[in-house]
Specification:
Strand content: 15-25%
Protein name: Indole-3-glycerol phosphate synthase
Shape: globular
Strand order of the largest sheet: 1-4-5-6-7-8-9-10
Pathway: Amino-acid biosynthesis; L-tryptophan biosynthesis; L-tryptophan from chorismate: step 4/5
Structural class: alpha/beta
Organism: Flavobacterium limi
Domain Indole-3-glycerol phosphate synthase: 4-254
EC number: 4.1.1.48
Order of helices and strands: HHHEEEHEHEHEHEHEHEHEHH
């Protein structure tokens, strides 16, 4: 069993537990539930940099990346740097995140927020909306075509955008549907954690132009982005590269200036 399989088994258990504690009716009373969301896809289309910066404390492959910042410091730094949007990891067990991180981020900035999570249930999409997210991530590797359709349409009905993450041709082919806004190619193989920009390059021509193309993971230099832009990528998700520094916001500022 690989790490992704383990995460999904744990996630399904976690969702069952949460549903038994916090009813949907409670999520729907959140102050953010009726709030107009901000479109990341539109911001990426209009942006020169396309940076989606990530708040990420640790990962299964790297263990602790950085625990020294508060969420507010990181996200404010990213907003000041000119990031198009911010990805907030909310998985606790493997990434050290929480829904509180999302809530604190929403209270601190006014740019699109992605709930970065292993979504397996509509309940998690309601949580995302209730905690101030503007968009959600769906991972093709762990969902069937029918699940992607159901979850993405559910998100759209709540006014949330959908970023679908794929890793290969097969995942891409099963996933393309009108209820997605952005298609992200993960340059990290979630089963082996090996990273290569070739994944993004190989799949670029297969992604229809109706969707904003996003390249995720393993992007650590301005050169990498310049290499990917001719392939039609408008968004670039960067996490560890900023988080592993002493000042994530400053690192993002310098990176975007170089772009």
């Amino acid at each position: 069993m690989n790490i992704l399989d383990k995460i999904i088994i744990d996630k399904k258990r976690e969702v069952i537990l949460k549903k038994s504690i916090i009813p949907v009716s409670q999520l729907e009373t959140s102050v953010f539930f009726g709030k107009q969301t901000i479109s990341l896809s539109q911001k990426l289309r209009e942006s020169n940099s396309g940076i989606i910066a990530e708040h990420k404390r640790r990962s299964p492959s790297k263990s602790i990346i950085n625990n020294n910042f508060t969420v507010e410091e990181v996200v404010k730094g990213y907003e000041d740097a000119g990031a198009c949007g911010i990805s907030v990891l909310t998985d606790g067990k493997y990434f050290g995140g929480s829904l509180d991180d999302l809530l604190l981020a929403r209270a601190s900035v006014n740019i699109p927020l992605l709930r970065k999570e292993f979504i397996v249930d509509e309940y998690q999409i309601l949580e995302a909306k209730a905690h101030g997210a503007d968009l959600i991530l769906l991972i093709a590797a762990v969902l069937t075509r029918e699940e992607i359709k159901t979850l993405s349409e559910f998100a759209k009905n709540l006014g949330l955008e959908v970023l679908l993450e794929v890793h290969n041709q097969e995942e891409l082919e099963k996933s393309i549907m009108p209820s997605l806004d952005m298609i992200g190619v993960n340059n990290r193989n979630l089963k082996t954690f090996e990273v290569s920009l070739d994944f993004s390059k190989e799949l670029a021509s297969q992604i229809p132009n109706d969707f904003v193309k996003v390249s995720e993971s393993g992007i650590s230099s301005v050169e990498a982005i310049q290499e990917l832009k001719p392939y039609g990528y408008k968004g670039f998700l960067i996490g560890e590269n900023f988080m592993k520094t002493d000042n994530a916001g400053q690192a993002a500022t310098e990176f975007i200036k170089q772009l």
